[in-house]
Amino acid sequence: SQTENQAAGQGGLDWGNDSGLYVGTWVSNVDFTAAGGEKGYEMDVYAGFAGEAGDIGYDLGVITYQYPMEPNINFTEVYVSGTASIVTVGLAYTVDAASANDGYLFDSGDMYFNGSLDFTAGKSDVSVYAGTYMFENDGTAEVGEADYVHYGASIGKDGFTFAVDKNDIEGGTADNVRFTASYAIDFEL
Fold first, then answer.
1. Any idea of the CA torsion for 181, 65, 63, 4, to the nearest 10 degrees?
2. Are 29 and 11 within 8 A, CB to CB?
3. Which of 32, 81, 94, 98 satisfies CB 3.0 to 4.6 Å to 90 for a cystine?
4. CA-based torsion, 79, 53, 26, 18: positive or negative
């Protein structure tokens, strides 16, 4: 949680065209006060190219995670994913990190592998997913053991989504099973 286990307001704006090119941004409130930081927001900015090659869907892009109230923790990733039928696999690689990340988490060289099964069941959208974060500085004296795996499932219909997630992060409440409910609405400008 980046909100001290409280609710988050989130929104995004995307543009894409028929060529597969897209750009967008996403914003969410954050609260880092328990770790000595500040309250504020995260703003992600991304661009990429998505399309299909035969029966395989693909997505290539770059995303930067910006924390205006804590700019020393910003970082940028390049990513690629592929989809065949209901199976999606992806990889994100951290290519640039701000000064506070040097030698710590979210430093250059971190990798995130993920996969999901996404399908419809009746009139509901179902997703079963898992991922693993492999930090470049895992196991160092400054970081300790930080690599982790997470997994979960969600079901959604008409903008409402219910999800259950679990992390294998040790310490505190980070490894608790989490249940979330959300509502999202899409509209075209």
1. -20
2. no
3. 81
4. positive
Q: What pLDDT tens digit does each residue of the chain (189 aa) get?
A: 777 778 888 999 999 999 999 999 999 999 988 878 888 999 999 999 999 999 999 999 999 999 999 898 999 999 999 999 999 999 999 999 988 888 888 899 999 999 999 999 999 999 999 999 999 998 888 888 889 999 999 999 999 999 999 999 876 677 889 999 999 888 777
Task: Output the DSSP codes for 68-129.
Answer: TTSGGG-EEEEEEEEEETTEEEEEEEEEEE-GGGTTSTT-TT-EEEEEEEEEEETTEEEEEE
Distance of alpha carbon 136 from alpha carbon 106, whole angstroms: 8
Which contacts (CB < 8 Å, 24+ apart) does range 14-23 have? 16/50, 19/49, 20/49, 20/50, 20/51, 21/47, 21/48, 21/49, 22/47, 22/48, 22/49, 22/50, 22/61, 23/47
What is the Cα–Cα distance from 45 to 67, expressed in whole angstroms? 11
As a whole number of angstroms, the distance between CA 35 and CA 25 comes to 26
Specify which residues 80 forms β-bridges with: 60, 91
Instruction: Give the pair of three-digit tokens for residue 44.
Output: 């992600």
Q: Which of 180, 172, 139 is nearest to 8 (CA)?
A: 180
